[in-house]
Design brief:
By secondary structure, this protein is an all-beta fold. The protein is built from no helices and 19 strands. The two termini are 25 Å apart.
């Protein structure tokens, strides 16, 4: 799931037989906004549900505050109807080894020219990569049953105060050597899971 305004519900996602490490049931990628995942039954997958950081790169630098995003990966949405959506989003810049090299804030996006403008100057060049961090995601993952997966729930993105995972049933079942039911690597509200 990388599109905004998405509901994934009432599905049964499973592997016949033993858990398959190559299968991921539900993958949610930042910065998709307004995502609701509920009432799914997930069984025997390598990963039950996982969240991932949105990653993008610079295709062209126009000045020290303005750039064009590359087509792939495409972590920042180029929303032509609501270009103000990305205003105040954070960009976490990375070097070729993945180390943090700085942070910027988006001032604006012009859908006519595909230009992103930063609030302050940043020394960027073509090919530079960055993570995309939206201040509020509005994600709710609730009332899912996740069983017999090697990594049942992996919250491996920035998340936000409006990223909520609640009332899920997470069970090891017949799968052994599962160290964690829910792995948390970001900002998530975790409530009433069993």
């Amino acid at each position: 799931i990388s599109a905004c305004d998405t509901i994934v519900s009432d599905n049964q996602i499973y592997v016949r037989g033993k858990a398959d490490p190559l299968v991921t049931a539900i993958r949610i990628r930042e910065p998709a906004l307004n995502v609701n995942i509920h009432d799914n039954l997930i069984r025997n997958c390598g990963v039950g549900m996982i969240t991932e950081k949105g990653v993008a790169s610079v295709m062209e630098v126009l000045d020290n505050r303005t750039f064009l995003r590359s087509k792939s990966p495409s972590g920042i949405p180029q929303d032509r109807i609501r270009p103000e959506t990305v205003k105040s989003w954070n960009l976490i810049w990375r070097d070729s080894e993945g180390k943090h090299t700085g942070t910027s804030v988006i001032e604006s996006f012009d859908p006519k020219t595909d230009r992103f403008r930063l609030k302050e100057s940043f020394a960027m060049k073509k090919g530079d990569s960055f993570d995309v961090n939206a201040p509020t995601l509005n994600w709710v993952m609730h009332d899912n049953t996740i069983t017999d997966c090697l990594r049942p729930v992996v919250l491996d993105s920035y998340g936000s105060k409006t990223s909520i995972i609640r009332d899920n049933l997470v069970v090891r079942g017949n799968t052994t050597n599962i160290p964690l039911g829910i792995e948390v690597h970001g900002s998530f509200q975790i409530e009433n899971n069993r």
